[in-house]
Amino acid sequence: MVLLSLPPPKRGVSPVYRDLPIGTTFVRTFDPTRHNTEALTFRFNGPRARFGHHRGDGPDRIPVDDPERAVYAIAKCDHRQSQPWSRYFYEIESEYGAVDGLIYYKAHNDEPAVMLYERAQTALVCHDDVIVRLDHPALQPLLDDLMRENHLTL
């Protein structure tokens, strides 16, 4: 495991900026039975883990509502490092601009993933006819392949 220092950076940071083209497709797995989650729901209650940039002190903060900050499309990582950095990039607009999210590599397979802040919410569109439940029979072959390729079990 790589240990990262907490922000602010001790040397200059040269972020790579990416504009995602209009029409870019995102895939999100969510449970509609928990917390009224929908395809475009952002989590305004935090911190929980990973990239939550909600305000508060320390990595073991008690989850509370933060109506001005939300996060979407979270991945697996050590939240004691990702949360402070996420808040840093979110808050330091004078240095980085109003960042809408972060692109990072997933822990289990090093593929790129996107985490979005609530700033991006108005740019997202999801029509009901493209939402597919994970227990839909047509998804089973794809899920089997994904689990096998990523050494996951269900």
Task: Give the topology, please.
Blueprint: E1 45-46, E2 64-65, E3 71-72, H1 79-91, H2 93-96, E4 101-105, E5 112-117, H3 140-149
Antiparallel strand pairs: 1-2, 3-5, 4-5
Write a structural description:
The protein has helices at 79-91, 93-96, 140-149, and strands spanning 45-46, 64-65, 71-72, 101-105, 112-117. The longest helix is centred in the middle third of the chain and has 13 residues, at 79-91. The strands form two sheets. Strands 3-5-4 form a three-stranded antiparallel sheet, with no helix packed on it. A two-stranded antiparallel sheet has the order 1-2. The model has no long low-confidence stretch (mean pLDDT 76). The chain starts with 44 loop residues before the first strand and ends in a 5-residue tail after the last helix. The chain has a domain at 45-129. It is α+β, with helices and mostly antiparallel strands and 154 residues long. The radius of gyration is 17 Å and the shape is globular. The chain has three helices and five strands, in the order βββααββα.
